[in-house]
Amino acid sequence: MSYSTQEQPLTLQQVAGYLLADQMIDRLQYDKILQIIPLQKNKIHPLISIASLKWPNLAQPKHYLSLENLTRWLAQRFTLPYIHIDPLKTDFAHLTRLVSYAYAERFKILPLKLENNLLTIATAEPLLREWEDELSKVLNLKIQRIIANPQDISHYLNEFYNLQHSLNEAAQDNKLKSSTVWHDFEQLLELENKDSKPDAGNQHIVHIVDWLLQYAFAQRASDIHLEPRRKEGHVRFRIDGQLHMVHKIPTQIMLAMVSRFKMLARMNLAERRRPQDGRIKTLSPETGKTVELRLSTMPTTFGEKLVARIFDPEVLVKNFNSLGFSKRDTMLWQRMTSHAHGIILITGPTGSGKTSTLYSALKHLARPELNICTIEDPIEVVEPEFNQMQVNPSIDVSFATGVRTLLRQDPDIIMVGEIRDQETAEVSVQAALTGHLVLSTLHTNDAPSAITRLFNIGVAPYLIDATLLGVVAQRLVRTLCPQCKQKQACDEHSWQSLIQPLTWKKPEFIYGSQGCDHCRQTGYHGRTGLFEIMPVTPAIAKLINKDSSLSTMRAVALKEGLYPLRFNGAQKIAAGLTTFEEVLRVIGINSL
């Protein structure tokens, strides 16, 4: 197919003609598009105008003429590569130095990657090519044109260049150089005390921090990491449990960003040698709802490292189905929490979703006639229906002393953030014995291990037997991207390794990860829980009194109907939610 070599932007009439020729619209729709042309005063890209009509694709009835689909079609029609711009994979600090903002904005182009003397540039105007030869000669680089969504190009063009401008201005205002090298901690502290350190109230620092927060929300990050290094600080996001590099920033600018976060959280700006904790409340730009950030700083060789954990109350407090509970899991859980007194333990490593389960359970149990009290370290999310107290070792408020205080507050339900020692375990047991429902967490690998852990802490077996209602072990696995997951055969050996010693028919097919623009080519989008729920039955209670071994406890629990974590993983695989590889990564091959 040949095209006019005339250098001009695409027109609405041209694009409509291409769509009609490809039978994606009919003649009536073509005429309607032509009627739009006189009404357009602003220079709107033709693809954006057509996508706003929300018409179905006549060539593919199950698809719509969305902006992304139209962009893919345009790339195919002009035999050019297509890309969905992923800002996490774009080194815009370097690329924005190659092409000026004025030049990029003039031709609506965006540099995306430089590799092996080849500069990849995104455009939504396949007929405009004069810039290609100009840039190639000026930069002495080969140019690869690639088609991308015009809205994304416009958005990231402003975002990348504005952010880089703020970084440059912050450095210039404070006469900083990204090549500065600090040889030791004391030298860095000496530099920090000088006026050369960027001001946390500097307008450019404020802009950078605001951008970082909005960017983190847009990327579904659960944590923001600011990590100072010798030459450049690293900004990383944790998304679906995995850390991703976002940007590299001169270390002293990063230290100013840390100070800005500390200022927002009302932390001590002058204190840089001791760890600190703080909180920030802000609004999500997409939903307009309140999002809470929990900040933690720690001194490192090159300055303060900061981690901001993002808590969206609506994401943290979910119904049991959203957490990943099956109908059987929900029934077992509700049976345990229906007791007026006793202890329920939730176990798993850090980052396994224990907090979400606890808050969701308490929210489900909360009623006007109940007094729910918590002792936490720290308070993850302030919940108006709970009475929450935070551990504070500096004034001798520990979990143990906190539980004793709560017992004098006429509670019905007590949540203890974590049982770490014998004293906390014993006061929690006493609270359960005196008629309270106690929920808490332990760090163990599975549900039966929680009982032996209590033995090891020093809790008497008869007290465990008298109070323990059940244990829930859990993990978080990434869920398959719904837009690109693909059917595949289920391997018999892999299936049996997950379900043994139980029996369950192998599914006809399962789903595997593929990778698409929606999931950033990872094949996964979001996370769900794997659960192992072990109610304390009479048979298990007998073993508790005998102080039995872990292997014996686990064998009896299986006979009593325990579904192990790996079996729950198999259920999630059969339901098309995740993969063998993800389940094995999370629970560990040794668990098999």
Could you walk me through the main structural features you see in this protein, from its secondary elements to its overall organization?
The chain is of the alpha/beta class and 592 residues long. Helices cover 40% and strands 22% of the residues. The strands form 5 sheets. A 7-stranded mixed sheet has the order 14-13-15-16-12-17-20, with helices on both faces. The protein has a 6-stranded antiparallel sheet with strand order 8-7-6-11-10-9. A 3-stranded mixed sheet has the order 3-4-5. The longest helix has 24 residues, at 150-173. The protein is globular and about 85 Å long. The chain starts with 11 loop residues before the first helix and ends in a 5-residue tail after the last helix.
